[in-house]
Amino acid sequence: MSETVPPAVLTIAGSDPSGGAGIQADLKAFTAFGCYGMSVITALTAQNTTGVQGVHPSPPDFVEKQLRSILGDIDVHAIKTGMLFDAANTRVIAQTFRSHYADASSRPPLVVDPVCVSTSGHTLLAPEAVQVLIDELCPIATLITPNKSEAELLLSQSNRAAKITSLGDMIAASEKLLLLGSKAVLLKGGHVELTLADVEKLAAERPDVTVVREELLADNMEILQVNEQDLTTRPLVVDVLKEAERTTLFVSPRIESMSTHGTGCTLSAVIASLLGKGHTLLEATRQATAYTHVGIETAFPVGHGHGPLNHLHALTQRVIPPPTASNPHPLTRILIQSAAKTWKEYVEHDFVKQLAQGTLPRECFMHFIKQDYLYLKYYARAYGLLVAKSSTYGSIESATQTIVNVINEVRTHKAFSARWGISEADLAATPESPSTTAYGAYLIDVGLQGDSAKLIMALAACLLGYGEVGLWLKKEATKPNSWVKLKGNAYLQWIEDYSGEHYQNAVKLGLETIEALAVADPPNALRLQEWSAIWEKCTRLEKGFWDASMKLL
Amino acid sequence: MSETVPPAVLTIAGSDPSGGAGIQADLKAFTAFGCYGMSVITALTAQNTTGVQGVHPSPPDFVEKQLRSILGDIDVHAIKTGMLFDAANTRVIAQTFRSHYADASSRPPLVVDPVCVSTSGHTLLAPEAVQVLIDELCPIATLITPNKSEAELLLSQSNRAAKITSLGDMIAASEKLLLLGSKAVLLKGGHVELTLADVEKLAAERPDVTVVREELLADNMEILQVNEQDLTTRPLVVDVLKEAERTTLFVSPRIESMSTHGTGCTLSAVIASLLGKGHTLLEATRQATAYTHVGIETAFPVGHGHGPLNHLHALTQRVIPPPTASNPHPLTRILIQSAAKTWKEYVEHDFVKQLAQGTLPRECFMHFIKQDYLYLKYYARAYGLLVAKSSTYGSIESATQTIVNVINEVRTHKAFSARWGISEADLAATPESPSTTAYGAYLIDVGLQGDSAKLIMALAACLLGYGEVGLWLKKEATKPNSWVKLKGNAYLQWIEDYSGEHYQNAVKLGLETIEALAVADPPNALRLQEWSAIWEKCTRLEKGFWDASMKLL
């Protein structure tokens, strides 16, 4: 979510301390949809899942003050209103909005959830405020989102009385509500019992009406059918979206649940979030309906009454932080830390220390060079698998370049070995030690078993470890009275190779490739654990490789 | 996050309408750490990133009412307090907490952030309230989290005056603060300039002090070194955690940033979240420090002054909803919907329709049977790759069982073909059609290129598609005057095989395997798109397979 700037979205509503509704639900919904949430509080309430125990309204001038603090400083991408409580607050909000956005074309989308009565029956909007909402707020709204009783109240107050008991009533009511001046109306059907037969009948009569069956099975999904109940009689919830040019029905199965506290708040908050992100009203409503529906179905128990829906279901937590200026390699750092002890035993191996002091016995180094010659064949082949696993020419080219580098390294090996009296035939005739086979064959195994990410993890311990050894020795060598002896050291070339610019550039490229994996497709705990296990194993195999050379002593 | 019940975590603090601090920041932090957030509001403020424009305190009796609504209904796992504004509110909170949790052992962790003055210099805690905080709140706190000036104020108020300018001062102050009665003290070092030299000097003098260098490079990380600045002089932030039995320093690089609004609120909110989840105070502090640090570094621009840190950086949005009772197959549904047209052309293919009517020419069916015989060899081999890619005996066994099933299916093929006058030699000698090679070789390609999840996607179109055809024909056949002719249909066995219980059980198992992939490792948009692309391609190859049989006409 950190890649793009989250839109700033504002709720103007009451506070529900128990966290299920009001600005608390709105802020959770804004966060769930990657928005920057803000909230002007119109009233405090004392409430919980069993009901409303008290209301403490905010003075209208302080509502205005909160709103002006925000509008005067922050670029707001969408606004929703919820419980406004009284006429004065309703009026001051409408007037502040109009006066701040004097130019109507500069106004952000405004979603008005005309909250009038709580689920538990508590009046949340004074009767005289309803008229102010109709006169001052509806005309500037992008969308109003009444439920059945709110729609009936708004219509009766504006002399368009209508009882809503059928799908036809809902559509007729949505058309009348549009006359109150908002750009669109979402009439929520949670309190109107309907079936698929009702929807199909209406769809046949009204070909201008579009039906979105997001939560119901579409054609060619017989295999997904699990509910044996006759689809045509199964109870449904139908929300009607009335825009100037079209009518859309959002159809979903009705869920019997006690966890519906804050459903209306959440729905309008999600719509505002998605409008703030630039989605169309239709798409925003579709996603908001689906999100709210899953929120009810995945609700966890809270309190003793009507619990809240689950706002967390659409989120997962990143286990690797995004790269930042002070920590540009979060994944590599986690890998190293997760196997810190083995990593240290590898990069600060006695083999390395003796090599740096120039005291490493010749036969140990020769053993290493011969086995490394055999190992590098596996290593090149593993990069061949990486080529085969690539999905872009870029990754094909980069893995191929590494194979070319390995082949060149092997040439150096041969020249180097020749100087120490070992012929190419000697190299090829060397029996492979178990530690070489273990490491080499494991690379090939990972390459066959997993995706390219896993293979990159397997190949990293070698690439990065030799780079670490090179830099460490270089750093140690510059210290006064260093234990590292470069002068006259028979292994000087080896140290220079791995601390040199050429190899270190390959290390930098490798780090970038590794970090890019975590950014492009952030792993969850499970996948990170798989990656760490491969890294740890290869680190151990690297240590084993040097152990084998030292065992000759 | 929906797998376990999120702990309910409560903040008792002021409201920041601009969303960067106060209960708004706390609710965002609770959500980021997968907790169920609640909030008692002690005061409304009108503020933004440039400063505080006004404060409207809540009456103490209404603060108590909010708190009692929550405590009386909901099982609270952790509480944090922030801005309490005045003595009366501070007192009523401490007293309500004590009286509700009369048994001290039943008390949830209580983190007290002693907010006294805003970053912009606005007094957020009346001077007389400081004494109440010391006398009534500190003794029941699990942790208090003062910054330098709050620590100095608390100490001077309790006659332990101390100026804090060095790391030694910080540790001494944390020890004195512990005497105020909380179980632990986190003294935040944001306003004390320190370097690594200071930390190393202190660590040498005080071996009892543990240093956590979460955000700094540890040993054996030379390759991750990107900042050329001398580490020993680089400015650091050090937070001191003083517990009864130990002292821990959390060291991180100092970041020059304007986006620090709400840092203290967020830090204490995250600590409360993690204590609510059962983490130790040390681990909670470590994670909270790291989260807040990354939040500052990844902050996006909001407002004209001191903007908020980024609360969203640790979250990613799920692109596949969790399975629910009304939608137990969200991934499969998305796959089918993403390729709806091709899927329909496949499962309602003319080949299928003519077969169901019994009018399919014999030569078309023979072509299909012969090519299917050749295709099934690829299919079995692809499951062999799935065996090779397995990481558990369970998945090895399940993929192996499918190979056994395919071998049995091939036997049926042979017997079937024999009845139609085709010998096994004829089957084996049949030239492979391009559509067979395309489909078969693509399965093997996916199996070599990707991980087991991708291979399962590739294998699903065949398994599920034939199941869909079977169920569809069975359903159509039961309709009055159905176009499907079962009686006397030469292909009856084929229809019965794929609509039968044996095959449909395999379909159910396949659906479970597919859905389990999305639950175990929820894909992001990128990976879902890769999966959908494979599914769509195989759906198209299935259609092409039947096209080839019909082209004979």
UniProtKB/TrEMBL annotation, chains A, B:
Pfam families xref list: Phos_pyr_kin, TENA_THI-4
GO molecular function, one term: hydroxymethylpyrimidine kinase activity
Residues annotated as domain Pyridoxamine kinase/Phosphomethylpyrimidine kinase: 16-213, 234-310
Gene3D superfamilies: 3.40.1190.20, Heme oxygenase-like (1.20.910.10)
Top-rank lineage group of the source organism: Eukaryota
InterPro entries: Haem_Oase-like_multi-hlx (IPR016084), HMP/HMP-P_kinase_dom (IPR004399), PM/HMP-P_kinase-1 (IPR013749), Ribokinase-like (IPR029056), Thiaminase-2/PQQC (IPR004305)
One GO cellular component term noted in the UniProt record for this chain: cytosol
GO biological process terms, semicolon-separated: thiamine biosynthetic process
Residues covered by the Thiaminase-2/PQQC domain: 338-550
Protein name: Phosphomethylpyrimidine kinase
